[in-house]
Write a structure and sequence with these properties.
Blueprint (H helix, E strand, L loop, with lengths): L2 H8 L1 H74 L4 H19 L2 E11 L5 E12 L1 H12 L6 E9 L16 E12 L3
Antiparallel strand pairs: 1-2, 2-4, 3-4
């Protein structure tokens, strides 16, 4: 008889319960502990995924709130621009533009020779564009002062084009550095007003 068989037969009362316990422990380990460990691991992964999703959702919410606030501010500023800065009709646009050009020209020491106005409406906008073509005569520094003052004036006037010509032909080669030169400037201006609905 072999040694292991002899030990088994003599100590059967101890070996059988130990063998049953070992098999039971292995069964519990394989059928309960490992699946629970996998379940806990997947639950922890779901918690991490949920935290990541929550952080992304909070970032999106913050971004959406900022965009909404920005949009509301832009709408308020646009409403203010339409109501307080833009002229309300064709007559007011013409009056404000002509008055601003004449007043600023006088303050800048230049002479307004002539001007003409026109209008065009855009299909995609409620704004109507009033165009003006103005010819001014003065020295270089006066023209510069005029352009700066007109661009920063309260009536909304856009200088779209400036055409400069020297009106004194014998000084044609002296350039704008000589403040005594008389220049003739043709300006294309634009102003806008809201069409009445």
């Amino acid at each position: 008889m072999s040694l292991w068989r002899r030990i088994f037969l003599e100590r059967r009362a101890v070996v059988l319960p130990l063998a049953v316990l070992i098999v039971g422990n292995l069964a519990v380990l394989g059928l309960v502990v490992f699946p629970l460990e996998q379940s806990v691991s997947s639950a922890a992964q779901r918690v991490d995924d949920s935290k990541h999703d929550l952080a992304m959702a909070q970032a999106l919410l913050t971004s959406a709130k900022a965009q909404r606030a920005s949009k509301e501010q832009a709408e308020r500023e646009l409403k203010t621009f339409y109501e307080q800065i833009l002229p309300t009709n064709e007559q007011e646009a013409t009056k404000l533009t002509d008055f601003a050009v004449e007043q600023i020209a006088r303050q800048s020491g230049i002479i307004k020779k002539n001007g003409q106005n026109g209008w065009d409406a855009s299909k995609d906008s409620r704004l109507i564009r009033m165009t003006s073509r103005v010819t001014l005569v003065g020295d270089y520094n006066g023209i510069r002062r005029f352009l700066f003052a007109l661009e920063s004036a309260r009536p909304f006037v856009v200088v779209e084009r400036v055409e400069l010509a020297e009106s004194n032909t014998e000084q044609a080669n002296s350039g704008p550095q000589n403040a005594g030169n008389t220049l003739e400037v043709s300006l294309s201006l634009a102003s806008y007003y809201l069409a009445q609905q």
